[in-house]
Amino acid sequence: MTVDLTNVFQQIDGDYENLKELLREAVAIQSVSGDPSKRDETIRMVHWMKEKLEAIGTACELADLGTQELEGKTVKLPPVLLGTLGTDKNKKTLLVYGHLDVQPAAKSDGWDTEPFELVEKDGKLFGRGSSDDKGPVLCWLHAIRAAQKNNIELPVNVKFCFEGMEESGSVGLPELLEREKDRFLSGVDFVCISDSYWLGTKKPCLTYGLRGICSFFVEVTGIKQDLHSGVFGGVIHEPLQDLMWVMAQLTTVDNRIKIPGLYDQVAPLSAAEEKTYDDIEFDVAEFRDSVGAAHLPTEDKKTLLLRRWREPSLAFHGIEGAFYGPGEKTVIPSKVIGKFSIRIVPDMEPEEVNRRTVEYLNKVWAERGSPNIFKPRPGHSAKPWVVDVNDSNFLAGARAMKRVHGVEPDRIREGCSIPITLTFQELTGKSVLLLPLGAADDMAHSQNEKNNKWNYVEGVKTLLAYIMELGSA
Amino acid sequence: MTVDLTNVFQQIDGDYENLKELLREAVAIQSVSGDPSKRDETIRMVHWMKEKLEAIGTACELADLGTQELEGKTVKLPPVLLGTLGTDKNKKTLLVYGHLDVQPAAKSDGWDTEPFELVEKDGKLFGRGSSDDKGPVLCWLHAIRAAQKNNIELPVNVKFCFEGMEESGSVGLPELLEREKDRFLSGVDFVCISDSYWLGTKKPCLTYGLRGICSFFVEVTGIKQDLHSGVFGGVIHEPLQDLMWVMAQLTTVDNRIKIPGLYDQVAPLSAAEEKTYDDIEFDVAEFRDSVGAAHLPTEDKKTLLLRRWREPSLAFHGIEGAFYGPGEKTVIPSKVIGKFSIRIVPDMEPEEVNRRTVEYLNKVWAERGSPNIFKPRPGHSAKPWVVDVNDSNFLAGARAMKRVHGVEPDRIREGCSIPITLTFQELTGKSVLLLPLGAADDMAHSQNEKNNKWNYVEGVKTLLAYIMELGSA
């Protein structure tokens, strides 16, 4: 039943200049979704991709999302590209998600080359979007083209959902998907997203978990306006002094959370799951150096990965309402809002985390004994996501990677959230696979973003192998 | 020897419309020193005042201060008006300081009237600068005019130093005064500044002390760039968590400083000095309500005034380098700088305060045990200022106030710094008197600034009486 792909893989290697040319075209379109002056380019990118999908026989439609207010202007939202390739009732259906927009970039930010000109150097393809996420999106296109060129019938129907607002909060997409639940999303059996990264640079991996988040605002006030620190200093309970004291009670120096019971909600680590950490390729010293830290709270590989992926963490972000400029300003701020967030993991529930956190803050505040006004409140939250590493979608991905790379991929998690993952899982009720193609050092969102030539070409093979493996999934 | 001023005072009362007209003209000149587009008006104000001083026989010169960079433009600094009225070698010499520039103001800020049109209502003269400091500056002019009109010889020579940059940091003035030490400033026997306020609204006072200041920057870093809190949260020693913890060790909830030995440097309070607090008119409840606080760290009148005026205080101002906008941002800041300042009083020395504070911060940091990089450093500092309430200049001011108001003025201090006070004292080596004319509710720097008609007119009398009293000082 398994189709031999040896010759096709060789053809893909030989087709490199064409693969590169298409990526060059895509990178040249400055689809920066966060920049209203580039909104037309972002829309043009969606149309460009529509043509490419239509050229391989996909029935495409552009779902209109209306407008948004951006920097005081009303601007059109880029439409979402929905494509259907194959409607064979005897086949299962794969839904592929990707995004066509990119982060801002300018040579003056510190790029070595023009960010919107694809430049190949030392086996690396530099350019904004080369890895996040235009490269992976084009890998899907190339994979299907390669199959078609070799008259290989795809064992599944493929649907595409490519948006142009991912880097700007996916405005409008969750609502669209909600509306499409019983139409475009009906009949989907598998979902695959290729918009994340390997843990390192050599060994492929599959991602089976993401952390969720609970954000918090802690407001302290008690004087009706900002006060001169000379005139009033010493005879006022300062809101900012209260706030910093309260926030200082949230964590230990080693970044462990002091809110009672929070760790108790974490799903127990089974011996089997713990064992999977043994084989994961991860260099703690390299990670520490990449961050620039002298020491980390833990430098044990397993403990560190567990803390990043399957334990909650609490980060401080800043304070609203206090002086933030350079230099000095001798004012006592009257109303300050501390911002922090807690990353959550299964089986933590956002409501429970919010409740325990606000309860702890109120308890700490009572200990403070300040007459000021204290208002802790939860902000937005997102649930954690974890998939069964033994489901058929996940195993098809693993077999595909082994076929291309010759090694069993690491099973990893990510510490961050990719909210659309959970949306797809909830609306389709099916397994979502995160199948990363790029290396950890691709510098997504940063200067000198690149995609390795090798990752790009092997990515095409991996996605083709994955589609073929889904035939026996 | 004492000249009877009864008739002159009556004439001053009768001259009210002229006093008001001159203030109207001055307020109409929009001498906002912080606004480069109003720089010409600020310069025009200096020239306007020069004409007025010349009209009473003052020999005037304009000291050029060159230019400054403001909002990216090179703009001319307003000259300093130096005037000399009388050079009688047998008389002592009084130096008067005041400023001709004002804070910004616009009706749209919440003024009830046009800020640059003097409006009289309910015995109040509303207008920007009516109280800070055009009103008091004109009181000097009116006082001398009244003496001249009545052929009363001034018992002292008078020198004037009126600047146009006080609201913008007195750029260039200290350097000018340094250069003028042996010329314009030579032979000065008394200095008087009328640019502060009564403690309340009814009872006059004289100000004999100002607090100094020591500013501090506390920098924490340790990671080389801002990090995504999802990807890195939980495995990093966060600089912002360290900073807030360290700052939380600086004070108690009641705003007392925890730095060892700081209070030990405060000059002991003698029984005689303590007794002066008994008679001071100050309503704690009114003060508390004006601030909008539910409770104050102390609500005992004497303790509260001691804490504002003759004890150090420590205020938090904010953090540079962390997220400060509205909403949420899930970033771990890589380098944060906490800002706080300590108000100091005699006999505290800035060097000693800086040393003890940095030493305490380093000790606390060692207790924290974080591997991050910690750099506490002192910012600018200013010495406290206190004058002998029994010196001849101060006693002349007190007699003048008693002559006009019929009551012994309160002896007060201010919690803030007026750095030019110390500059004059150091360069002349003579006593500087702060002689406030305006009421505590004059709203300097704020919307609806006003000068009470009563304070304005009595102010003219007070300054005349003070000049006359200096004859026997």
Structural write-up:
The structure is a homodimer of 473-residue chains. The mean pLDDT of chain A is 95. Chain A is an alpha+beta fold and 473 residues long. In chain A, strands 1-4-8-5-9-19 form a six-stranded mixed β-sheet, sandwiched between helices. In chain A, strands 13-15-11-16 form a four-stranded antiparallel β-sheet. Chain A has a three-stranded antiparallel β-sheet with strand order 6-7-20. Chain A folds into two domains: 293 residues, 3-Layer(aba) Sandwich (Aminopeptidase), CATH 3.40.630.10; 127 residues, Alpha-Beta Plaits, CATH 3.30.70. The first copy, chain A, is 34% helix and 23% strand. Chain A is built from 14 helices and 20 strands. In chain A, helix 2 packs antiparallel against helix 4, helix 4 packs across helix 14 and helix 12 packs across helix 14. In chain A, 52% of the residues are buried. Chain A is globular. The interface between A and B is large, with 79 and 79 residues.
Task: Describe the secondary structure blueprint for this structure.
The structure is a homodimer of 473-residue chains.
Chain A: H1 6-14, H2 16-28, H3 39-55, E1 59-63, E2 67-70, E3 73-76, E4 80-85, E5 92-99, E6 119-121, E7 124-126, H4 134-149, E8 156-163, H5 173-179, E9 190-193, E10 205-210, E11 212-221, E12 227-228, H6 229-232, H7 239-247, H8 271-279, H9 284-291, H10 301-309, E13 313-320, E14 331-332, E15 335-344, H11 350-368, E16 373-382, E17 385-386, H12 392-405, E18 410-414, H13 419-428, E19 431-434, E20 450-452, H14 453-470
Parallel strand pairs in A: 5-8, 5-9, 9-19, 10-18
Antiparallel strand pairs in A: 1-4, 2-3, 4-8, 6-7, 7-20, 10-17, 11-15, 11-16, 12-14, 13-15
Family (chains A, B): Belongs to the peptidase M20A family.
Binding site for substrate (chains A, B): 195, 228, 330, 343, 417, 445
Cofactor (chains A, B): Mn(2+)
